[in-house]
Amino acid sequence: MPDGSRREMAEGGSRIEEILNKLGINPVEVIVARNGMIVSEEETAGGGDELKIVRFVHGG
Amino acid sequence: MTGMLSDAEKERYSRQILLFGEDGQERLKRTRVFLAGAGGLGSAMALYLAAAGFGSIRIVDCDQVDLSNLNRQILHGVSDINRDKVLSAQESLTGLNSEIEVDALVETMSEENIDRLVQSCDLIMDGMDSFAARYILNRAALKSRIPLIHGAISGYQGQATTVIPGRTACLRCIFPRAPPASVLPALGSTCGVIGSIAVTEAVKYVTGTGKLLEDRLVLWDGRNGCLDELACERNALCPDCSEL
Predict the structure, then answer these.
(1) In chain B, which residues have their Cβ closer than 8 Å to the Cβ of A31?
(2) What is d(CA A13, CA A32) in angstroms, rounded to the nearest whole number?
(3) Of the partner residues B39, B176, B230, the one whose CB lies closest to the CB of residue A60
(4) Which of A25, A33, B16, B126 to pair with B204, CA 20 to 30 A apart?
(5) CA distance B36 to A10
(6) For B15-231, which CATH superfamily applies?
(7) How far apart, in whole angstroms, are the C-alpha atoms of residue B13 and residue B179?
């Protein structure tokens, strides 16, 4: 999770965008890695997948 | 600018010539870098680019120095307040290294002028503070096939990656949409971490040493002292790079 915490979820192949919505996370502010690889929110995740949700930064 | 090193340059760069030889140093000397931004990240990038001996640095920024910049924008000092940032930058950089050329442009980067701004440059460094500006840089890098080294920061956090047009994920593949604009906290030492990573990428790219951050996004979490990395890949449907 963006705050560094971990959460177990029983998901049977949901779209990542739906998972983010369920967690109350704005998809525009994060990137999501599925098993270490950054993927689009259109992709699905479930089963034993590990999702890492990172709030990326844009300052300079 | 020729690539041959003078005796003074051989002395100045002697410790890094141990790393990549005179040939590597000559390559740095022949390299023209486009640096977008003379803010926090741009300051760290610019100083290390200059110190390393990149022969030509074209730095672009439209802002003037403000007192609230000085916690992180180490190119500038109190006496530079209200001056154009790039002019202050030019003075700092040539003061650090008189062997290099610094081209200072007071301009706002846009779709209209970006092709002219990056023309004849070999490398683009991203020291911008918004994704709107980064997408302009990204498209210019892809169009001109110039590598783009990305960095961004907020507070204790930062990220970096290297885009090689046609070979790696581009910025739009990794960050398809810009996050909402906001005023972010900024710490000079975070700019230092990410700026240093970015210049290390530039040095490796030019000298042909090491392993670049290709298709890898490095994430720095200074609050917890953690460095993480995520893999990425080209998006076949990317609106910016799928045609390459």
Answers:
(1) 174-175, 217, 230
(2) 15
(3) B39
(4) A33
(5) 45
(6) NAD(P)-binding Rossmann-like Domain (3.40.50.720)
(7) 41
User: What are the CB-based long-range contacts (under 8 Å, 24+) for B143-149?
Assistant: B143/B115, B144/B115, B144/B118, B144/B119, B146/B34, B146/B118, B146/B121, B146/B122, B147/B122, B147/B123, B147/B205, B148/B124, B149/B123, B149/B124, B149/B125, B149/B198, B149/B201, B149/B202, B149/B205
User: Are B127 and A40 in contact (CB < 8 Å)?
Assistant: no
Helix boundaries (H) for B84-149? 85-96, 114-118, 131-144
Check B39 against A29: CB less than 8 A apart.
Answer: no
pLDDT in tens, B7-65: 999 999 999 999 999 999 999 999 999 999 999 999 999 999 999 999 999 999 999 99
Domain regions of chain B by residue span: 15-231
pTM: 0.96
The domain A14-55 is classified under which CATH number: 1.10.10.10, 3.10.20.30, 3.40.50.720, 1.20.1050.10?
A: 3.10.20.30
